[in-house]
Every structure is written in C-alpha cells, then in structure tokens.
Amino acid sequence: xxxxxxxxxxxxxxxxxxxxxxxxxxxxxxxxxxxxxxxxxxxxxxxxxxxxxxxxxxxxxxxxxxxxxxxxxxxxxxxxxxxxxxxxxxxxxxxxxxxxxxxxxxxxxxxxxxxxxxxxxxxxxxxx
Length: 128
Description:
38% strand, PH-domain like, alpha+beta, 7-stranded antiparallel sheet, 17% helix, disordered C terminus, 7 strands
C-alpha cells in the first residue's frame, strides 16, 4: 500500500488486504474463484471482488450498520454475506481451508472496525 499511496493511487489513510476465495455464482449453482479485496479509507470499509485474473466485478460497503456475515452451518468454511442496501443480493463465499476461513473472518472484522462499525459481536454460527 505504501507504493500506491506514494503514487497517488490510494488515499493516505487507505489500506487494503486481499484473499482468494470461492463465490457462489449468481445465476448458476457453481463456485467461482474470486479475488476479494478488503479496503478502508475516510471512515468507510469496503469488500470488492474480481475474477481470479483481477478483472473487477463488484463491491459492497461493509462498514454500514446492519451488514451481516453469517457462518453457514453446513461447514466451517462457508459464509453468507447480507448487505444492508437492496442494491446487492446476499451471497455466499467459501474458503478452501479452515485457516483461510479464519483469515477471512479476521479481515472482515478488522475492516468493519476500521470503517467505524460498532456491532461486531460474533459467535461461531451467528451473524457479525
């Protein structure tokens, strides 16, 4: 991020982290590899996703109150993301391993805090 800030491509208070996960396709029941980017700047936090080659697909604001991340009961590596606005439908993401799932949960929580969200209480099978 320091190089991006120096180049003027990212705000001075900007930060980001990336992780590869699977996202359930919107119209077909197949899992697609997606590059997820957590970012924050100016008191807002975002989650964006791109193709495995980095082609941007979409993003949501994750610092909004009411945003939910639910760990799905079928396994410890899948989550349902429930956006606040009606612009986006809820969607599922899945990690390849428990370690990746833990990292995703850690990043989601960290960036929500950076974005100013206050409701962060969680338990293994409940919404954040």
